[in-house]
Design goal:
The protein is an alpha+beta fold and about 240 residues long. The protein folds into two domains: about 100 residues; about 110 residues, Mannose-Binding Protein A, Chain A (Roll), CATH 3.10.100. Helix content is about 50%, strand content about 20%. Strands 1, 2, 3, 4, 5, 6, 7 and 8 form an eight-stranded mixed sheet that branches. The longest helix has about 90 residues.
């Protein structure tokens, strides 16, 4: 009897072992299948991610190129509008495209005004400052020739010096170290200030009264209004 039980037990255990193995095989196959499916999904997602990154990179490059083209075009249009406005300004000094306030002269990228008021050098500086401008400084040949063409007589310039000195040719002022660099409050009665008289620069007491020249940076020329200002019949608005 005990042998039958032992045999039966062994047979039962063997059957259970086989079922466990089969169950393990089924689970293993299921896990493998699931892992394979998920791995496939991950691979597809990786491929999608890489493709998306490529597309984004290409779009960024395209946008960058487009932005550069737009920027270059804007610069070109601005240059064209500025040149056109210069021509219109030569024909009509008060043309609406002029990037300077009324009564101010326009030269290259700056605006200039000749004041008829007689003021001390210090008050002249203050007056120009109130206009968001400064006393004229001549630091390149273009401005030099522009000012020389005006044949000015006794106008304060942005020149101040700690001592009196002889007059100098206007051309020499381009390299002068006396152009205004100190604050106006630093100028006192012992200093001399420079003024233009035709082709020359002279120095005198800063408390003397003279007319003066202010300068400030011109506003950008408005592209749209300038390019549309010329009408078909050849007249200018």
């Amino acid at each position: 009897m005990s042998e039958e039980i032992t045999y039966a037990d062994l047979k039962f255990q063997d059957s259970s072992r086989k079922e466990n193995i089969h169950e393990f095989d089924r689970v293993g196959i299921k896990v493998y299948t699931t892992l394979k499916i998920e791995t496939g999904k991950l691979n597809k997602m990786q491929i999608f991610k890489e493709e998306l990154q490529r597309n984004v990179s290409l779009q960024l490059i395209h946008n960058k190129n487009s932005s550069k083209m737009i920027r270059d075009l804007s610069i070109t249009l601005q240059e064209i509008a500025t040149k056109l406005c210069h021509e219109l300004y030569k024909r009509e000094p008060d043309h609406k495209c002029k990037p300077c306030p009324k009564a101010w002269m326009w030269h290259e990228d700056s605006c200039y005004i000749l004041s008829d008021h007689y003021e001390t050098w210090q008050k002249s500086v203050m007056f120009c400052s109130a206009q968001n401008a400064s006393l004229l400084t001549i630091k390149n040949k273009s401005v030099l020739e522009f000012i020389k063409s005006k044949k000015l007589r006794k106008y304060w310039l942005g020149l101040s010096n700690g001592e009196y000195q002889d007059y100098q040719n206007l051309d020499e002022t381009i390299i002068s170290s006396n152009w205004l660099t100190r604050r106006r409050n630093d100028v006192n009665d012992r200093m001399s200030c420079g003024y233009i008289d035709t082709q020359y620069v002279y120095y005198t007491d800063c408390t003397s009264r003279m007319r003066f020249i202010c300068e400030k940076l011109a506003n950008p020329v408005e592209v749209k209004s300038t390019l549309l200002s010329e009408i078909p019949d050849g007249k200018y608005s």
